């Protein structure tokens, strides 16, 4: 297990974070769950950093992961774009990023964090269930060959 430093993303992180997402989401495509994050550009990541709360994980000054959290209602926040560079997967960095994002949401007064994930993914639904998330609905996708589910976690 590696304990990363986690901090708010800054505009200068956009190139490195885009590279992390391209690496992290490549595996999902190979598993049959392609996502836009696999081809994300630094310009798009810059927009995420400007418009939402994005956190980055670094290990020895190398940016190795990221996560985004966005307000979707006064008491709800959406966790998305969790990604860890393929060379760093399996070291607990994703868990640390989720912990940090949940605490940030709690600190901002949100009661619930929600996310979407493919129900047939070989490890993501179990990862989130193990962290206290429960399926609360379906999330149909017209632009992909698969649908997703909504999972939620009460913070209070």
Structure description:
It is a single chain. The chain has a domain at 5-111: Aminopeptidase (3-Layer(aba) Sandwich). 31% of the residues lie in helices and 33% in strands. The chain contains four helices and seven strands; from the N terminus they run βααβββαβαββ. The longest helix has 17 residues, at 14-30. It is globular, with a radius of gyration of 15 Å. The two termini are 28 Å apart. The model has no long low-confidence stretch (mean pLDDT 93).
β-strand amount: 25-35%
**Shape by Cα distribution:** globular
CATH class bucket of the domain at 5-111: Alpha Beta
Task: Provide the helix percentage.
Answer: 25-40%
Main sheet overview? 7 strands, mixed
- Residue-averaged pLDDT: 93
DSSP summary: helix tally: 4
Strand order of the largest sheet: 1-2-3-4-5-7-6
Order of helices and strands: EHHEEEHEHEE
N→C terminal distance: 28 Å
Q: Structural class, from secondary structure content?
A: alpha+beta
Q: Count the E strands.
A: 7
The H-level CATH homologous superfamily of the domain at 5-111, spelled out, is Gcn5-related N-acetyltransferase (GNAT)
- Specify the CATH architecture of the domain at 5-111: 3-Layer(aba) Sandwich
CATH fold-level name of the domain at 5-111: Aminopeptidase
Which value, in Å, is the CA radius of gyration?
15 Å
* Weakly predicted, low-confidence segments: none
Précis, in short:
The protein has 4 helices and 7 strands. By secondary structure, it is α+β, with helices and mostly antiparallel strands.
